[in-house]
Amino acid sequence: MPTPLVDLEHRASGSATAALVIPEGFALFEDGPFIQWLRRVSVLKEITNVVWRRVLVAVAVTWLPLLVLSIRDGRALHGGGLPFLTDFQTQVRTLVMLPLFIIAAHQAHQVITPALQHFDEMKLVRPRQRGTFTNILRTASGWNHSVAVRLAIVGIVVLIGPELWRRVLVSRESSTWYGVGGDTAIARTSAGYWLLVVANPVLQYQQLLWIARLLMFGTMLARIAALDLHLVATHPDRAGGLGFLGERFYPFLTLIVAEGAALAGILANRIFHEGRPLPLFKVEIAIEAVIVAAMTLGPLCVFAPTLIRARRKGGAEYAKLAGRYVREFEDTWVRDPSNPNGRALLGASDIQSLADMANSFQVVEKMRPVPFTSRVVIKAFVYFLVPVAPLVLTVIPAEELLHKILDVVISL
Fold it and tell me: What sections of 226-281 are H helices per DSSP?
């Protein structure tokens, strides 16, 4: 079941008032009409409510039948140019990518969903727009639970899924574990039929579902950004108070690793079964990394216009405040050396206030246009490249690579 986040108590000035900000049953990254239908069956309820059980079921539906059928066909380890267990693309997609997709959805629900409450707790949403904010969340959750959206995804998988699958197959003239004729082979073995009819559609459905959820997430945040948010330009997070969104980006890192692993599986097939060197794919790797980073960080970038306006407004307001303060400071401490008030210069609070004013002005000037730091961007690229990194060993021997790494570490 989705995390219960309804009727949370909002306490301010010693009083508690009900703040219905996150609607009951809100779920954007997991759950859905199919899962809800399964929960009605008592036997399946416990399976759907535990993430690792859902992972096991997914693997049992996709990878396990392929293994059993390929063994029966005599194509698990031999018998053809591409045996099942040496098809790195299939192994990675079913045993790594698919489980990580499920885990990432669960993590995002557990981390991002409660973070939305911060919009109210930090008073970013003005009281008069609290109901509008809740309706925005309710609409986004409705998209995730929409049968029409799921059927549209299924339709895309059915119409163009097989063609997309053929484009990433290993190009070989000899037979493979799923059929005969290399990249023109339509699943002709029993394992190949399962791949074409069940396993591959499940994998493509999960991938497209994540794309849809990121679009829903971005649309939801764009509607929130359009509200009259109470952003504070001098907030120490350098994001007007929205920095908590960037701090809770890490569930998407699991998704990024999954996408990197999927690419690594395709490249491994190209390298080991087609004899093509890794440097040949450096442009493809770079483009894929940029696309994945843009897809995951893109939803947070919708706040850029709002944050830029907040920085300009805050800069203008603090410039006026600073100008008025420094003029009064100058009149008191510089242009009036006699100091008629008899105040001592040493330890005067006005001096510290001047420094505080300068620091506040610098905070406004350093305010970021997005609610995440450059470190998050670097992490996104690093996590994408981690699954691809072992393929470097196909170009540079492990011993030579280790020596180069040690040389870099020692030189630091």
Answer: 243-247, 250-274
